[in-house]
Write a structure and sequence with these properties.
- Two copies of one chain form a homodimer.
- Chain A has helices spanning 21-25, 43-57, 64-75, 118-122, 149-155, 204-212, 223-227, 256-268, and strands at residues 5-8, 11-12, 15-17, 28-36, 80-88, 105-112, 125-134, 165-170, 175-178, 182-187, 190-194, 217-219, 231-236, 240-247, 250-251.
- Chain A is α+β, with helices and mostly antiparallel strands and 275 residues long.
- Chain A folds into two domains: 5-112, 2-Layer Sandwich (D-amino Acid Aminotransferase, Chain A, domain 1), CATH 3.30.470.10; 118-268, Alpha-Beta Barrel (D-amino Acid Aminotransferase, Chain A, domain 2), CATH 3.20.10.10.
- The longest helix of chain A is centred in the N-terminal third of the chain and has 15 residues, at 43-57.
- At the A-B interface, strand 3, helix 1, strand 4, strand 5 and strand 6 of A face strand 3, helix 1, strand 4, strand 5 and strand 6 of B.
Chain lengths: 275, 275
């Protein structure tokens, strides 16, 4: 799963400056975008989030057409690819103060899409509770920025291959998301997903579900509420709609809401398997 | 103030892999170390913090002797230098899960020490209140890790050269620190500094002050308490002991506690000026 093709500011390269603010301070954003036969069904949502993040961080936004050309170039020839676009504030002098006229660094890298078993989509996946809790920071919440130590620490808690994901609470004990996916649940007949106003990432797949299901509610979600859900599923721009079979000892069955959203995903152009 | 000499894993280089987890996730730590005529008076404290951070993040700690040799090599010939040591979890596959056997990337870079006017040390500096608030995350608090977007956003709030620093509150409204320095105040005859258990960085200069003044108290500090302080000063491993002349409209005078700590700093081997 190593990156085999990378463009840095449009040119083939596999390195960047040690003085880049991306490595110095995590001063930047990224998107990981699923391509299927050369097309990225959620491209517009990825671009929207990237532009929003640039606006919030004060980083000049990249040209969307240029990003798409480069993403297509690095993923060309692969039926299933993941393209990571990383945008940093670029090289700068030492110190937190951003350069007055930043020259962002744009890294566009293609990876083979992760192999997922069909069973994951049919029967669902087992997930665990993480001990790592998400800190609260409304200024950064929702963005897919490069400050991801919380996710690294959470994902470092376990290594069993049979458990592909873990759920995260925030410091107040509310359920927020998985380490690399958002979470939806059907509770008392209502489709709900946690707010990402104080922590967490506003996933593009989450946005797609919210758009397809305007009756869904963005809310606070306590662990005991989740325990009584009829259905639980995870959403990821890369992996799609993943039914949750069990959270720890609590067992769920993929239900009609999950199945309908999986069909919606197929309709967007994502295959159900090898997703 | 550009880095003119850099070693990456011991070899002269000015780039690192785009697949480094330092840029992908801010997955690493750093130290900025003041060297005076080839010596770093706070070296042991920097090394201790780096080792502590490695333990907390699960990154193999670098060899301290090797770090010192490399720091001495890149700063050789400069009377006043700042050496930044950046340690990342190294190159890894895509995804938050840390490699089972990480090969850290060690970047050792020398910079000219920032020029500071003697006036800053004699009369003190003017600082402002930042609107950016520090989020709460005990798992990361205290460490000098590479997830520094909060400091970048805070430092981006102003550009007046006459105001070298800004003070940060946390989400609960407690005073924590400046953007790149810790804060001490003399209140009702007691030397106090905010706790960095939930956010903020445990500065090496802060540790030195706490060691020199075992009567100092680590506490919560409200803005209104700070307003009634007799003395306020900032501490930085790079810049030393900086009296605060004013926070916004509130004026302070450098007092005996600040002066005694400045003398202590000179005794460590730091010059008062060109600090």
């Amino acid at each position: 799963m190593a990156a085999v093709r990378v463009l840095v500011n449009g040119a083939p390269a596999d390195t960047l400056s040690v003085a880049d603010r991306g490595v110095a301070y995590g001063d930047g954003l990224f998107e990981t975008i699923r391509f299927v036969h050369g097309l990225a069904p959620l491209w517009a949502r990825h671009q929207q989030r990237l532009q929003d993040g640039c606006r919030r961080l004060g980083i000049p936004a990249p040209d969307a057409e240029q990003c798409l050309r480069e993403a297509a170039a690095v993923s060309a020839g692969w039926d299933h690819a993941v393209v990571r676009i990383t945008l940093t504030r670029g090289v700068g002098p030492r110190g937190y103060a951003p350069p007055a006229s930043p020259q962002p660094t744009r890294i566009v890298a293609a990876f083979e899409a992760p192999a997922m078993h069909g069973d994951s989509y049919l029967q669902g996946i087992r997930v665990r509770w993480c001990e790592t809790r998400l800190g609260l920071q409304p200024l950064l919440a929702g963005m897919k920025h490069l400050n991801r130590l919380e996710q690294v620490l959470a994902r470092a808690e376990w290594s069993e291959a049979a458990i592909p994901e873990g759920l995260l609470l925030d410091l107040d004990g509310n359920v927020i998301s998985a380490t690399m996916a958002n979470l939806f649940a059907v509770i008392d007949g209502t489709l709900v997903t946690p707010s990402v106003e104080r922590c967490g990432v506003a996933g593009v797949a989450r946005a797609e579900v919210l758009s397809a299901r305007p009756d869904a509610q963005v809310t606070t979600l306590r662990p005991d509420q989740l325990q009584h859900a009829r259905e639980v599923f995870l959403t990821s721009g890369v992996r799609g709609i993943l039914p949750v079979q069990a959270v720890g000892d609590t067992v769920y069955g993929p239900g009609p809401v999950t199945r309908a959203m999986q069909r919606h995903w197929c309709g967007l152009g994502f295959p159900m398997e090898q997703a």
